[in-house]
Amino acid sequence: MSGPLTIVADENIPDVERYFSQLGAVTRVNGRELNAEQLRSADLLLVRSVTSVNAQLVAASALQFVATATIGTDHLDIDYLTKRGIGWANAPGSNANSVVEYVLSALCWQPGLLSALLAGGTVGIIGMGNVGSQLYQRLQALGIVCHGYDPLISQHSFAGMTSLEQVLAADVVCCHAPLSYGEPHGSFHLLGFAQLAQLKPGAVLINAGRGEVIDGLALKQLLAQRSDLTVILDVWESEPAIDPALLAAVSLGTPHIAGYSYDGKLAGTRMIYQACCRYLSLPEQLPASSTKKTCIFQLNPTATVEQGLGEAITAVYNIAEDDGRLRRELAGSTARQRANSFDALRKNYPRRREFAGFRIGNSHLLSPSLQSALATVGFQLQLNTSTA
Predict the structure, then answer these.
(1) Which of 94, 156, 208, 274 is a Cys-bridge partner for 258, taking CB atoms 3.0 to 4.6 Å apart?
(2) Catalytic residue (choose from 210, 338, 352, 353)
């Protein structure tokens, strides 16, 4: 590096100045409205999933490196970047735990669901990458039977790997597949009407992966016919201009924030900073952590495993609050206003800590089985009563 770099960064990447200002001047931009003119003199581009990085955006630039602070890369034209000699990186796994905790909150939201799963119910997971595999391992550790479907990995990777049909027969179906097109294993509209119709009576469908994996029109048609289904969507086709009729039809809707924990976003910033330093052969100078101190709270000492998990998870992250905000902000507005409100909800999302940022202060009074379950999902335990 011959001198300070010019860095353009999405305004929703936290702590970007603390990491990157040592490399050069950082300019924050609206990632969805970013244009080619803003990149003419840029050396580094840091984005999230709302920015399509392609020839149209970067052809006139002299970019050296592009990084997305997200797991997915479907918004990057990697072939074009490689052809141009522009380095690139993503942040695999950075927000996977955040998405897993979103799903756990969703399971606690519906009365009796967690109890039913712990009593022998099944969860099917579509996509066994960073998120799906972590969800599988966490649920299995709780004693919940899981099946996984992912044609892109070895079928021996997990004991529960099976067919899409068997996954769709589970009590809860979770979609975490990346978005891809074409044969033989494209995921675009992987779940059309025929597949969605296979959901068992009373099933729960959760999509916290990519909106286009589910055919939104088909899902809306199915929900008009089947009131027994519970559908929870964090991702939508045509974001940010989501279909208000589909939002009205689903049980819970959130504005693509499953992976938006503060801890996960900070991890993404750190990962792309490290990737940039490696690519440019620069020494890493990691700033001190900016996460808050551990928070302590207590649970009902007579709580069962189901009650204690539900109480703890909901106290830390209540998915229904995100659903309420989305419905309030999108009610009665024009398509353009709805799109702006959707993006504003993401930009101004409350700081959400992951379970590991919380300690159960009276853990020593809880049953051993509840202690184990709380530790499994990520909470800190305070078993020594003399510990402050």
Answers:
(1) 208
(2) 210
